[in-house]
Each structure stands twice: as C-alpha cells, then as structure tokens.
C-alpha cells in the first residue's frame, strides 16, 4: 500500500511546490528590473551557500552544526526519497544511503528542537515552533519506510496500521518541507535563500577567501538623477529591485540582526528583523498579525499592513512602516554583518529614506536644517565656510592650491569646525610633521564629504557635494588621501567611485601603523602602559570596522606605544555603534535609553580609564555621556603625546627659541 | 480653514544665505509660501518678477508647488509697476510677501508701495489668517515678544510676513525638479534709482546699549526678558491726523531719523 501511496504523495507535494515556486517568482518580479548576471550567479550559488553562508552561521557553533546535519541530511534525503520511493528504485544501497541521510537529519532536528524548548527572544515563534516537529516527522517517517528497502525489516512489516501512521507522517513532512518551502512556510528561507545568494545585489561580497564580510561591499548605490523618470528612492514595495524583494523573502527570522541592533536595544521603534518581515508582507500583501517575533519597541503587532502597490509610509494614519522606524537607524551595519542570509538592511532603509527626503521633504527634526546648511555652506552646522581653516591658523599648513602635488592629501573633514575635534586634528598634524610626511590640505576648497546628506536620503545634495569635491581633487596630484574621519574615509573610498572619483584612501590609524612599520616615528611608551590597574579599551567605529574591515591597524598603533587593549565583549565586527552614524543624532528619534550611554556602559565593564577612538563622531557621542566616565582620546592624540621630537632643529638647544624660529618660518 | 473660492498669491524673490551669500529661497518669502499653502494648498499662485532661469527659484517649487509664475525682467528693472499691474488684473483676495528681500535693494518698501499703488490695506508682521468671510479676513498680526493682535481687514489685502510666521516646510528635490516655471513677458520698466544710486556694503545698525545693573542671576534674567518699558512715550488718542503726524515727525527728528 505504501508503495503506491508514497509516490503519489511525493509527486503531489513536488507539483504543488513547483506551483508555489512560480507564484513566489511572480511576487519577486513585481520589483523593478536590475542588472544581474543570472548564469554566473547560479553557478556560484552552491559555493556561496556552502562556504560563505556557512561562515556566518559558524559564528554560532551550535547552530552551524545543527544546520549542517539537518539541511545536509534533508537535501540528501529528499533526493534519495524521490529516487527510492518516488520512482521505486528499491536498491538496497540506495536504501542504506537514505537511512543514513534521514538519521543524520533526525539528529540535527533533535538539536533544532532542543533550541526551541526555551527559545531566546530574538527567535520567532508561531509556525517556527512547528518546524522541528515537522523535521522530525519527515526524517522518522522516511527512515521507517525505508527500513524494508534496506533489507532490515520484512516488506510487510507492521501491516496497515504502520502504513497509516507513516502516511500521516509523510504527509506532514512533505507538506512542510516540499510545498511549504514555496508557499511561504518557514522552509521558504531555503528556497528563496538559495536564489537570493545567486542573484545577490552585491556579488562582490563573495570573494576568496570566503568570509562574506559585509565590509567588502559597503558603499550605497547611487541614484541616477539624470533620468527624470526613475523613482527617487522607494515609495512602495514594488519600487525595490526584484532581487531586493527576493533578499527580504529569504530571511529565516533568526533574529541575529535584532540582537545586534543598537537602536532596538535602546528602545527606539526599530527592529531590523521585523523591518525585513514587513517588506515581505508588503510584497505579498497583508498585515503583520501573523508575525511572531519581537515587535518594534513601543509599537504593538497587528496594526500595520500594506501591499506592493501602496505607499510603505503613510502620513495620515498607519501603513506598512512608520517613518520614525526608518529614521531610527544609525546605519551601523551590525545587522548586515550578522545576517546569515546576507540581507542588505541598510540599503533598504536608505532607499526608503530617499523617497521621504527627496519626494516628501519629510526629514525629521533637524534634518531639513542640516541639509539646507550643507547646500548653502558645505558644512552641516551652517558655519561660515571661510572659517574652515581657523583651527590651523598657527600651524602653517601646506595648501594644495599652492603646492599642487604632495604625497599625502590630508582630508580634514567637518571636524575642523568642532573645538574638540580640532585637538585631534592638531595632534595628527604634529605627527605628520614629525614623520616629515609630504602632505598638503585643500583648505577652504574642501567641502563636506556628503556622508550625512546621503544617509539622510538626500542623494541630490550628496552628489552635488561629491561632484564638487571630485572636481577639486582632480586639479591636484597626490598619491593618497588620509583622513581622521571614518565617514569621509568611507565615502571617498567607496562611494565617490560611482561618480568618477577613484582614490587610495587611508584612515589615520592605518596611516599611523604604516609610519610606525616604516620606523618613521620615534615613539615612547605611553604612561598608560606602565599602569597595572585601569588601562585602555578601543571602540571600533562602524565606518572603519564593519564598513571597511579595518580592525587591526588601530590596535597595532596602540600596541606600538606600549598599550595592551582591554577588549570589550562587543568589539571588532560586533562592536556596538556609538549612536552617531546615519544622521541619527540629527533625526533624533526618542527611545528608552541613549545608544552612547549603552556603549559607555560596555566600556565601563572593562574597568578602563581611557577609551581610544578613531572618529570625530564617536568622540562627540561618547564625550556627551555624563561623568564620571573614562576619558575619550583619539588615537592620534595618544600617539602625539608620546612623540619624541628630535632633530627638528638640532642647532638650537632650548625649546623656547626653537618655537619662535618655527613661527617666523 | 481653506476656502475653495479664495485666491492667494505669494510674491517670492531670490534670497542669499547670510554666511555664504549663495542664492537660496529667501527665508521670509518661504514663510509666505508656507502660509499660502496653509490657506489654499497647491492652488496657491507663486509669483516672481525677475530672471526665470534662476536655479534657486526651484527651491520654492520643492515645497510642493506644481508651478511658479515668473514675470520676466532683466536685472535692474523695477518690479513694482509690473507686479502692481499683474495683481490689479488677477482677481486675488490675499497677497502674501516677505518683509524684506535678501538681495537687491532690500529696502523692505515693496509691500508698502504695492499697497499704495493698488489702494489695498497692508498688514505687516502677518502671523496667521484665521478666517475669510464676507469680504473680510480675520488675521493675527505679530507684535514683539510673542504678542499677537487680532485684526479684521477688508479684502483684497496685502500681508507681509516676518519670522513670526510659521517656519517654511522642507524643500524636496523631486517636486523642485518636476515643478514648472511659466513665463510671462512684461513691459520692462527701468528702475531709475539704479541710475543715480550705487550699492555700498551695509553697516550694522547701531544698537542702543541696555545697561543692566542686576546683582543676581534672577535679576539679570528678569531684566533680559522684561518687556521694554517705553520711556517718555505718549499715547495719542482721538487726535486729528495733522496733530498725529506732527507728533510722529517730532519723535523722528529727536531720534535722528530725519535731519
Ligand atoms: S544598521 Fe544598525 S541601527 Fe540600523 S537596523 Fe542595522 S543594526 Fe539597527
Ligand atoms: S534579516 Fe537576517 S539576521 Fe535578521 S532575522 Fe532575517 S535572516 Fe536573521
């Protein structure tokens, strides 16, 4: 009886799965067209799935092993089951292989079930709680049904009772695992995920060595402003490109992004996992009533909904997502770095912000003022542009306009207007001079890099600033750009390229490490090195670390001045954002606590006296935390403190006349 | 509050940023547009006399206007007669404008001269239009220190807007790019003033020193926020226009405004 029932069940399930797949593809195709190398992607897909994806899953050992056993066992079991039970190839060897595969899957599924006994808050419940049972059912049923074929049990073992029980098991199993996969069940992640990896919008992420680090491709994609018919950002779900929709659909609701998101932890109304689910709801149509994960803090489930053809954000009443959800994001990219399905949350958030800013003029709080300032004065705070070099009035900095070429172009950044950051800049100049680096600055010709404008969705202002900067830079010859600001660094390095400006750009920590390696600097031991208590920790700026993969150089520099970094639990690629990126301090969406306070708490747990930073924004955010708290020092300041300036003017013995002589120069 | 039959025109000019002197939408004019949008939504007519190809005019369109109407004029032409002509013909009940332009002459005289030429009432420091009924509008006029005066004015009237009016909404790139700029050829009237007068940089206006002899912080705070109590002023009521004018003339002479 089973021999006739099983093939029918299997092929019905498969047929339904194919039907579901077609329907799903139609949903994705609602998105806008985009150029994707389909064939190359499909060929690369197995490696992306087995190697790159596994690398990210591997960060949670328990889950990676469980996943290998369950998914590997399932794929094998599915193929063999179709051969053995579907086509009736009752070969003993195949039977044994199928037994092995289902056994492996069963063991994996037991671990899935164990994790689900007391699931952490980041995991979704609902149908996801059913999944381990379905997996167990599928593997157990096929295991038992295959025993006779492997010759372990007699053919007629168990009679019709067992046959009936097995039929129920198989129906349950194949419903979840075959057609549930394409009809929107939890297993959808496997089907959509495979295609998402194949047609990923950032194929550059999958390079050898395989680690799929999000830092390999972090620049936002430019809008084509020349095309007046192209939409300015995303208003409705169908305005996403089709492979973005596909990407959203591949989410496994593992909640790793949620666990890492600083805005979520601060109680701001954002949860990257829910945001991705909302995009899926928008694509397929419906409400979030059937979402079983954590909500946006402060926003109850069941009140939002939408469809592919209606606006995502509504200004009267509720739609799919509230605007403040989109404006809570600091663009720290912790979610992207953590996501095992390599979904690009930040791209989606900025796409939607673009619509709000460029079409609706609805950048919240200080947003509009900052953008106006950028347009009128090239800096976000509306300072008079002629004061841009006041910080260096006494430093006699070489100007590009006079020199025309230099080895290093020192990009100062808007920190030039900020009194705190001026200390960092002056420290760095001191080091540059001590190392006798051939450098020059743009002076008054420099403008804001456009970072903030772009993250606030104002692509037009970004491109205007970028084009003008590129025009200025094109007039001079230099080998590389060095900057103390990771935001300028990122934009110059990764985002000007699409507009025609390609440069070699260094963050000052990388440059300092290079100077130290080349022994161009004479450095002493930092006083902190000699202390037994206290010490120093280092806060990784998002735009240096997760955006550009630079975790080593700052630590190397600190080591060179004798400081051992006492690492925080969340450091390196898991560092928590300071709360200063993405225009978040400008849009200022209230939460329960402040992100910089949480980061300072992280810092305090290491018991340090000093926290080293490498970003003017981090400095400002962390120094904004009320005392008592560790001191905040930029790496450049720490290095400048222990600089041994010899041979500046050997003829002159005392310090005072030497300074005079320099001033005259 | 929006009246389907109400027609509102806002006059706009090209502004200049106080720090960088870059062309922009003028702050007060943008507020006048905002007020107009409050009153009649995108049925608002926005009018400019000058160069239609000036890019910064698009910043007004970015506030969500489908079109902006320009009476094309070269630099140095007198905007007053063309605007007066246009408004005379235009069947409009409310004309809104900023108090003072940020570029050009910037004398702040335009609303007064227009009102004189058209014979319409002028409300300066217009903060809000509360209602329009039966040929009259009930408006709020801004006075110093956040005070408001409710006035009833006959239609049509001109209202000039200063920084007491609601702030202008953000200008967005999309509508700014899409919005249409419609041209109208008008007779060019030379501004004779430009022939005889020359521009010179403005000197900051001298401020009367406020001597505060406060000992405590509380006193200083009170002194800083206290209403300026007029010294030696007088209230004239029910006097003849002649007597009133004479009194004003006397004060202006004393203050050195007229010599
Ligand atoms: S980028 Fe950072 S703040 Fe934004 S959603 Fe992701 S984790 Fe949260
Ligand atoms: S977006 Fe990625 S990290 Fe977040 S729940 Fe989905 S799969 Fe997990």
UniProtKB/TrEMBL annotation, chain A:
Gene3D superfamilies (UniProt xref): Alpha-helical ferredoxin
Pfam family, one: Fer4_9
Domain of life: Bacteria
Keywords per UniProt: 4Fe-4S, Iron, Iron-sulfur, Membrane, Metal-binding, Oxidoreductase, Transmembrane, Transmembrane helix
Annotated transmembrane regions: 6-22, 68-87, 93-113, 134-153, 159-179
InterPro entries, per the entry: 4Fe4S_Fe-S-bd, 4Fe4S_Fe_S_CS, Csal_0991-like_N, Cys_rich_dom, HdrC_iron-sulfur_subunit, Helical_ferredxn
SUPFAM superfamilies, per database record: alpha-helical ferredoxin
Domain (4Fe-4S ferredoxin-type): residue spans on this chain: 242-271, 317-348
PANTHER family, per the entry: IRON-SULFUR-BINDING OXIDOREDUCTASE FADF-RELATED, IRON-SULFUR-BINDING OXIDOREDUCTASE FADF-RELATED-RELATED
The protein's name in its UniProt record: Dimethylglycine catabolism protein DgcB
Organism whose genome encodes this protein: Pseudomonas asuensis
UniProtKB/TrEMBL annotation, chain B:
Regions that span the bilayer: none
SMART domains: ETF
Keywords, alphabetical: Electron transport, Transport
Short name of any one Pfam family annotated for the protein: ETF
Ranges for domain Electron transfer flavoprotein alpha/beta-subunit N-terminal: 15-190
Keyword Electron transport in annotation: yes
Transport as UniProt keyword: yes
Family classification: Belongs to the ETF beta-subunit/FixA family.
Protein name: Electron transfer flavoprotein alpha/beta-subunit N-terminal domain-containing protein
Naturally occurring in which organism (per UniProt): Pseudomonas asuensis
């Amino acid at each position: 009886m089973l021999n006739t029932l099983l093939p029918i069940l299997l092929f019905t399930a498969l047929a339904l799965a194919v039907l579901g797949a077609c329907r799903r593809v139609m949903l994705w195709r609602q998105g806008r067209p985009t150029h994707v190398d389909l064939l190359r992607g499909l060929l690369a897909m197995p490696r992306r799935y087995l190697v790159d994806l596994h690398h990210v899953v591997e960060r949670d050992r328990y889950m990676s092993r469980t996943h290998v056993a369950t998914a590997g066992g399932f794929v094998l079991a599915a193929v063999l089951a179709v051969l053995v039970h579907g086509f009736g190839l009752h070969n003993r060897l195949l039977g044994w292989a199928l037994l092995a595969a289902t056994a492996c899957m069963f063991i994996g599924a037991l671990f899935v079930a164990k994790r689900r006994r007391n699931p952490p808050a980041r995991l979704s419940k609902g149908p996801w709680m059913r999944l381990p049972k379905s997996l167990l059912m599928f593997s157990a049923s096929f295991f038992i049904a295959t025993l006779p074929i492997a010759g372990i049990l007699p053919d007629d073992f168990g009679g019709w009772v067992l046959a009936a029980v097995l039929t129920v098991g198989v129906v349950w199993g194949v419903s979840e695992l075959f057609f549930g996969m394409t009809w929107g069940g939890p297993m959808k992640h496997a089907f959509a995920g495979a295609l998402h990896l194949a047609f990923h919008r950032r194929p550059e992420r999958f390079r050898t060595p395989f680690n799929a680090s999000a830092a390999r491709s972090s620049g936002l994609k430019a809008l084509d402003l020349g095309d007046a018919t192209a939409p300015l950002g995303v208003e409705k779900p169908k305005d996403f490109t089709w492979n973005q929709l596909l990407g959203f659909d591949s989410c496994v609701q593992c909640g790793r992004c949620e666990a890492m998101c600083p805005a979520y932890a601060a109680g701001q109304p954002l949860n990257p996992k829910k945001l991705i689910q909302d995009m899926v709801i928008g694509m397929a149509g419906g409400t979030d009533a059937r979402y079983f994960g954590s909500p946006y803090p402060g926003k109850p489930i069941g009140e939002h909904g939408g469809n592919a053809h209606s606006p995502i954000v509504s200004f009267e009443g509720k739609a799919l997502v509230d605007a403040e959800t989109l404006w809570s994001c600091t663009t720290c990219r912790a979610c992207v770095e953590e996501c095992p399905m390599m979904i690009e949350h930040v791209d989606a958030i900025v796409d939607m912000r673009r619509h709000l800013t460029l079409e609706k003029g609805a950048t919240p709080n200080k947003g509009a003022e900052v953008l106006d300032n950028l347009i009128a004065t090239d800096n976000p705070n509306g300072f008079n542009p002629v004061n841009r070099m006041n910080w260096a009035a006494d430093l006699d900095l070489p100007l590009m306009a006079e020199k025309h070429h230099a080895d290093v172009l020192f990009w100062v950044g808007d920190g030039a207007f900020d009194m705190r950051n001026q200390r960092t800049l002056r420290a760095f100049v001191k080091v540059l001079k001590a190392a006798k680096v051939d450098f020059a600055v743009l002076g008054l010709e420099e403008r804001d890099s456009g970072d903030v404008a772009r993250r606030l969705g104002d692509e037009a202002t970004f491109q205007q600033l970028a084009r003008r900067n590129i025009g200025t830079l094109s007039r001079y010859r230099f080998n590389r750009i060095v900057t103390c600001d990771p935001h300028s660094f990122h934009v110059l390095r990764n985002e000007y390229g699409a507009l025609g400006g390609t440069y070699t750009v260094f963050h000052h920590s990388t440059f300092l490490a290079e100077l130290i390696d080349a022994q161009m600097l004479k450095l002493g031991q930092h006083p902190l090195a000699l202390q037994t208590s206290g010490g120093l920790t280092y806060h990784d700026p998002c735009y240096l670390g997760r955006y550009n993969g630079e975790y080593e150089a700052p630590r190397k520099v600190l080591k060179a001045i004798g400081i051992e970094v006492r690492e925080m639990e969340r450091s390196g690629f898991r560092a928590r954002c300071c709360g200063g990126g993405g225009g978040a301090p400008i849009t200022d969406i209230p939460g329960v606590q402040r992100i910089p306070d949480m980061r300072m708490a992280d810092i305090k747990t290491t018991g340090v006296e000093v926290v080293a930073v490498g970003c003017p924004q981090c400095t400002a955010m962390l120094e904004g935390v009320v005392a008592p708290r560790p001191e905040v020092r930029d790496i450049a300041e720490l290095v400048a403190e222990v600089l041994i300036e010899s041979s500046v003017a050997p003829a002159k013995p005392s310090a005072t006349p030497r300074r005079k002589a320099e001033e005259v120069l | 509050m929006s009246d389907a039959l109400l027609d509102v025109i806002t006059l706009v000019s090209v502004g200049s940023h106080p720090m960088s002197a870059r062309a922009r939408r003028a702050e007060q004019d943008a507020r006048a547009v905002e007020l107009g949008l409050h009153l009649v939504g995108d049925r608002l007519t926005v009018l400019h006399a000058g160069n239609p190809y000036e890019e910064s005019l698009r910043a007004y369109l970015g506030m969500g206007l489908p079109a902006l109407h320009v009476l094309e004029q070269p630099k140095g032409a007198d905007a007053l007669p063309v605007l007066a002509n246009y408004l005379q013909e235009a069947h409009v009940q409310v004309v809104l404008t900023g108090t003072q332009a940020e570029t050009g002459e910037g004398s702040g005289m335009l609303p007064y001269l227009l009102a004189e030429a058209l014979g319409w009432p002028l409300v300066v420091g217009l903060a809000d239009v509360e209602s329009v009924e039966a040929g009259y509008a009930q408006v709020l006029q801004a006075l110093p220190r956040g005070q408001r005066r409710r006035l009833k004015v006959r239609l049509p009237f001109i209202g000039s807007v200063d920084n007491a009016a609601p702030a202008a909404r953000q200008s967005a790139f999309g509508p700014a790019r899409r919005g249409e700029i419609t041209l109208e050829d008008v007779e060019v009237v030379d501004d004779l003033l430009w022939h005889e007068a020359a521009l010179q940089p403005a000197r900051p206006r001298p401020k009367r020193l406020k001597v505060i002899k406060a000992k405590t912080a509380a006193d200083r705070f009170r002194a800083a926020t206290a209403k300026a109590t007029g010294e030696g002023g007088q209230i004239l009521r029910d006097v003849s226009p002649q007597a009133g004018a004479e009194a004003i003339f006397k004060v202006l002479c004393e203050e050195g405004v007229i010599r």
